[in-house]
Structure formats: C-alpha cells, structure tokens
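Hi U.,

Before I forget, here's the chain from the pilot set. I'm dumping it here mostly so it's searchable later in email.
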Amino acid sequence: MAAVLLAATAVLGTVGAPAAVAAGAEGGDAGQRARAWLPEPTGPYPIGTTAVHLTDAGREDPWKPGQRRELMISLWYPTSRPADPAGRAPYMEPAAGEHFGGADGVGLINYGTTPGSTDWSGIRTHARKDAPALPGRRPVVLYSPGLGDPRTWGTALVEDLASRGYVVVTVDHTYEASEVAFPRGELATSVLPGMLGQPDLDIGAVLRKAMAARVADTRFVLDELTCLGARRDLPSGLAGALDLDRIGMVGHSAGGFTALQTMHDDPRIAAGINMDGQLHFPGPDGRTGVFLPSVAEDGLDRPFLLMGTGSDDSGTYRRQPGWNALWQHSTGWHADVTLTGSRHGSYTDAQTLLPQLARQGALGAEQLRNDVGDVRPGRAELATRSYVASFFDRWLRGHDDHLLDGPSPRFPEMTYER
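Structure:
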C-alpha cells in the first residue's frame, strides 16, 4: 500500500501539470482508443450482476466530515438467463471510465496507462445486468480491491467465482477508490491525489485511516446483506440466494489486508485470501518503520491463504514482516503461494487487460513489466482462478480438489509453503 502512495506521488509530480492534462484530452478520441476484453469465466453457470447503493446512517464519512457514509456494491451470481453480446453489462460506467483513464485516475497513477488512451467503459463483462438469480442458496464471497482501485478491477476473478456457483459481493471504498459512480449521477472521486502533493504528508497515518474505513465498510456491508430481502429493487431470487452462514473474503493489495483484518475483527468471515497485500503500516515517510496491525499480532484461528508475487517487497511470508507475524501467531489452517515471474498487478485485471492495451500503445513495455512482470497472462489468470476457487471450495463448500495440499505439477510456476 505504501508503495502505491509513493509511486503516485512521483507520477503526479511529473504528469499532473495542466499541459499533461491537455495532452491526455487530445488523445481521447473514442474512435481511436485502445480496446480490450476479459477472459471467459470457466464455471458451468451463466452470470448476472446488479449494483446496489448503500447508506450507513450511523457513520460519518471519514474522508468527508459532515456526510453520511455511502457505498456502492455489486453482486455477481449464477442465473439461468445468459447475456447475449449486446446485453453484457459494461465494465465501467461511462463517467467512471473517463475518470479512471484520465489524468487524475488510477489507470495512470497505479498502472501508468496514457491518459485518454483507452475506452474503459467500452469493455464488456460476461454478465447480464439485473438477471434473475438461479434458485438455490449459495456461499458468499466478498471482494475488496487495492488502494485506489475501483471494485471493477477484479472482475475476471469475480466473474469466474460467480460462474462456479458463488454469490460475489464487490465493494467500492468511496473517496479512496479512484471514482465511484452513484445512481443519482454523482461521481465521487478519490481524495488521495489531492493529499499527495502535501510536503508533510504522513503516509502511515493515511494508510491507517484507509484501513479503518475499509474494515468498517466491509462490516457494514455484511450487516446490509442480511436486509436485502426488504429491498424491492433487487433482481428476482437474489436475496434468497445468499447463504450468510458461509461467507469468505478475498482482496488484492490493501484489499487483501482488508480481508484478513476484517476476518480478525468479525467472526462472520469463515475464510480469507490475501493477494499480495502487506500486513504492516510504515512510518510517516512510507518507507521506514514496521507497525503491525492486530491481525498480525494476534493471528487467525480460521483458514487463510497468502498469495505473493515476484515484486521486490513481496514473495514468501518469510520476506514480509506482517505476513511472518501472522503466520507465527495463527492457529487456523494456512498456506502461502507465490506466482513466479509476476508483479503486484498480476492478481488483478491488469494481468489480462494491460498486455492487450500495451499492444495498442496505451502503455510502454517497461511499464507493462513493472505492472505484471513476465508471466504469461493466460497462465497467471488460470493459476489465480484455480487457487482462489480451490480455497473457497474447500472451506465454504467442503469440496477438496487437493490443489492446496502442496506443490502442484499443474502449476509449476506456483511455489508453495505450508
């Protein structure tokens, strides 16, 4: 997480000037923008999706004092009515896609894509919007994205889980996420870029604030899931499809930290996956100091999986102070896998989308390697989906394919520790 803030500071310092904004706008002809597509889900079910607006009447927004905390979530679920090509839900709403790909958006700040170069809202998911849910109660998995990333940035993984029979709930962390599109037309953009130019910015304090907000967001969403039956705006059968006695959570980067910290704080989460999210806070400069959160100090008594990458600050739990502390203090089942040749973005849609965009000139080869390494995209996507599904199948469904028993000849690029 700290690395993201530090990198964003450098990016904004060099390209945040008005001239750079103008250049991005000139490159924004929709007819010439780069396009990309998501990989097909691998499960047997067609999928539906719906977006839900939530307001926490009992909590002030931590980033906007005086306002109630508002969130957008999406639910992804099995349906009997597959989407035809014209009926697939968009990857991002138009206003959100424009901001994400603009000079102040995370497309540039986190991943280095050229402002205005990509038609983000032109990407299509494989889900039918507001489709009726397939009958049957299904385990629930929450998904939290990385710092600044929108909830859409894990769609390939989320769709795959839904196609395998899960209900997946993706959460936007408002005013930290690059942008959040609300039904009334408001686009709530991130407050982080405005902070990054401050010479006395305490990065550690910002990260602690963000994590506290994320955990509170997630616990509020868990509360609200129990009340979905009272809503009249949900697709048919969806509220009854959620089995809230079988809840897991997965997240990337700060979202992985969120998953395990919320699991520590809230017993409703039975199993969690941290995909390349550090489990410590730095000091004010973001580079020095190791301050452990309660999840690392106390450990977990329920199953969790750590998924590392080949980034300099990642890898096995032995190389990461927060991961190592969690490992030593935990009594629940746990394992650690690392994807050889990967980088921090490899467990997100960056792994699938950015190589396609790089071929069309939206980012350079060096930036692409920094984002996703040199692992083959198809192998990275298959490994991510397979290990995540194996974990949740084992701990939420009682179906064990034994992939997580040890090193697997199916995935020689995955190193394994137990």
